[in-house]
Automatic annotation (TrEMBL):
SUPFAM superfamilies: CBD9-like. The keyword Phosphoprotein does not apply. It comes from the Eukaryota. Keywords: Signal. This is Cellobiose dehydrogenase-like cytochrome domain-containing protein. Residues 1-21 form the signal peptide. It comes from Lasiosphaeria ovina. The keyword Signal applies. PANTHER family: CELLOBIOSE DEHYDROGENASE CYTOCHROME DOMAIN-CONTAINING PROTEIN (PTHR47797:SF5), DEHYDROGENASE, PUTATIVE (AFU_ORTHOLOGUE AFUA_8G05805)-RELATED (PTHR47797). Residues 47-212 form the Cellobiose dehydrogenase-like cytochrome domain.
Amino acid sequence: MGSIYNIVVAVLLIASSWANAAPAAAGDNSVSSPSLDRRQTTSKYCASSGVCYLQIVTSGSNPTFRIAIPDGAAAPFDTLLQIIAPVSLGWAGFSWGGGMTLNPLTVAWPNGNKVTVSSRWSNGRTLPGLYSSATYKTLSSSKNATHWAVEVACTGCSRWSGGSLATSGSINTFAWAMSRTAVAQPASTGSSFSIHNNVGMFSDDLSAAKTPSSVFSQYIKSAASS
């Protein structure tokens, strides 16, 4: 992603090829030809709010990502994304379409005691530009001595020009990236950022990400007003 911008491959967009790759070593610092772990496994995480998330945890040095969607909905619908990252990371990125190009990218980085979230899109292996078709409502944002974390509700991340999330049992593939280098302008959503230190992908049918629509919408409403 973006400066997830040397994720090298057209095969990032081909779901059938992901299952056969060798896993990357933890803490892989490769930037020119990263070793993609295409067999990362997911789990289900349910919060006290009643919202359940599809969760990907790879190592203590990489971010944790959690996504949630309303049960029974067909795209387009709002999505939830949580990113919990070690304080050593300068930015973390999430791809809603499984690769760097031609799908919504969510990029986040610490900004003082809060977190800035930037909506991005890339047509090629260059720094992704701002993307106005996906908008974010920040529900929580924090930074402490060990981690920074953010949760957002996204409008425009479930369907985009050329693709959408599938909710009826079909497999979706997602990608992520991270860097240990701080962004140039932490307070600006348009900041430039460096190339990644590590990347990964995972696939799932989103059943673990589903929350009853009434609980989902009430959670967003309550969190946004708190």
